[in-house]
Design brief:
By secondary structure, this protein is α+β, with helices and mostly antiparallel strands. The chain has helices at about 20-30, 35-40, 40-45, 65-90, 115-125, 140-155, 180-190, 245-265, 280-290, 300-310, 315-325, and strands at about 5-10, 15, 50-55, 100-105, 130-135, 160-170, 190-200, 210-220, 230-235, 235-240, 275, 335-340, 345-355. The protein has a nine-stranded mixed sheet with strand order 5-4-6-7-1-8-13-12-11, sandwiched between helices. A two-stranded antiparallel ribbon has the order 2-3. A two-stranded antiparallel ribbon has the order 9-10. Helix 4 crosses helix 5 (about 115-125) and helix 10 (about 300-310) crosses helix 11 (about 315-325).
Length: about 350
């Protein structure tokens, strides 16, 4: 079975405290919404304390062209991706020139040559490394990327597959967009990158407290739901789309998809030892709790990542995985990693611990 050897993460240098983001939003949206104080309560209700963004706060006080923002995205994404890769491999006995396949997931900017090609040059990876760029999966990209990395590792025995999820959500901010969606986005999103090394061959972590095997994965896309989450492309950048009905959709729809997937593998939610759910926001996590009948302590790692980093789109669920893997795994434990994204879709990865 493909196994997860190590996870490394990275964030940009600019820490943004939630109180600073709230003050920024008040200045920007105050004239648009007369009852701004009522709307600003979302900043206190997100369960977020800090986030990390790609530019200092004063940069967002000015307008920037799509070109300028995208150039910042490419530069920052390469730097964050490289840092996450180096932190991941530093935990293992595998060197950069031993990577056989590089898979890069991102949705918050555009690059051709793609980010994988740029990272090959940035880090000096082998010239013959296989590469797969994946764009457009949004918050589901970390889970989908892990599933694809495991599939590649299984199809090519002995290959070392490196998944990197890189998101610079802050750089999609459009100062002239005074919509409620943009206000909510200002309260939620941060930037970060996560790298995961997957192989079914040789390779181990330097301090091995057990590892996860990827035993199964599945995707589900709800029909007629294209308007729930995604981007509109405007002259000055990418306009965020996310429906206020997402928590309701989770309560109504996720159980009916997740339970049959688990049942196929003789599992139920109560039998899962660890749950790695993408923390799209506090209301999203609470919706999972209600839909699946679980207590908040089952999602402790997700809440912790949300508090420290906010929603970093595809990378976030891999941050949750990285934090929880700091605790030794017990052989036989079962885990589920899952995330929702544009489509409207659900990506699920089933894990089993090995000593």
């Amino acid at each position: 079975m493909p196994r997860i050897i190590a996870v490394g993460t990275a964030v940009p240098p600019y820490e943004l405290r939630q109180i600073e983001a709230r003050q920024f939003a008040k200045r920007l949206f105050g004239e648009t919404f007369p009852g701004i104080e009522r709307l600003l309560k979302i900043f206190e209700n997100t369960a977020i304390a800090t986030r990390y963004v790609s530019k200092p706060l004063e940069w967002f006080e000015r307008d920037h062209s799509f070109q300028e923002k995208n150039e910042a995205y490419v530069e920052t994404a390469c730097r964050l991706g490289a840092e996450a890769i180096q932190r991941c491999l530093a935990q293992t006995d595998i060197a950069l020139d031993e990577i056989d396949h590089l898979l890069v997931v991102s949705t918050t900017g555009m690059a051709t040559p793609s980010l994988d090609a740029r990272l090959i040059n940035y880090l000096g990876l082998r010239n013959d490394v296989n590469r797969t760029p994946i764009w457009g999966l949004g918050c589901a990209g970390g889970a989908a990327g892990l599933a694809r990395a495991a599939a590649f590792a299984k199809a090519c025995p002995g290959d070392r597959v490196l998944l990197v999820a890189i998101e610079c959500c802050s750089l999609t901010f459009r100062r002239q967009d005074r919509s409620k969606s943009n206000l909510v986005a200002t309260s939620l999103f941060g930037d970060g990158a996560a790298a995961v090394l997957v192989t079914d061959g040789e390779g181990k972590a330097r301090s091995d407290g057990g590892h996860w095997e990827v035993t199964a994965a599945a995707s589900y896309c709800w029909p007629d739901s294209l308007d729930v989450m995604g981007w509109d492309f405007m002259d000055d950048g990418m306009k965020v789309i996310f429906s206020r009905d997402i928590p309701t959709l989770i309560k109504q729809e996720v159980k009916g998809v997740l339970e049959p997937f688990l049942a196929t593998h003789q599992l139920t939610v109560p039998r899962l030892d660890r749950l790695y759910m993408h923390p799209g926001g506090k209301k999203v996590l609470e919706a999972y709790e209600e839909a699946l009948g679980m207590s908040p302590d089952k999602l402790a790692s997700a809440y912790r990542v949300l508090k420290q980093y906010g929603n970093m789109s595809s990378a976030t669920v891999l941050f949750v995985l990285e934090q929880d893997m700091r605790q030794p795994l017990l052989p036989g434990e079962r885990g589920l990693l899952a995330a929702l994204g544009p489509g409207f879709s659900l990506e699920m990865v089933l894990l089993q611990a090995k000593g």
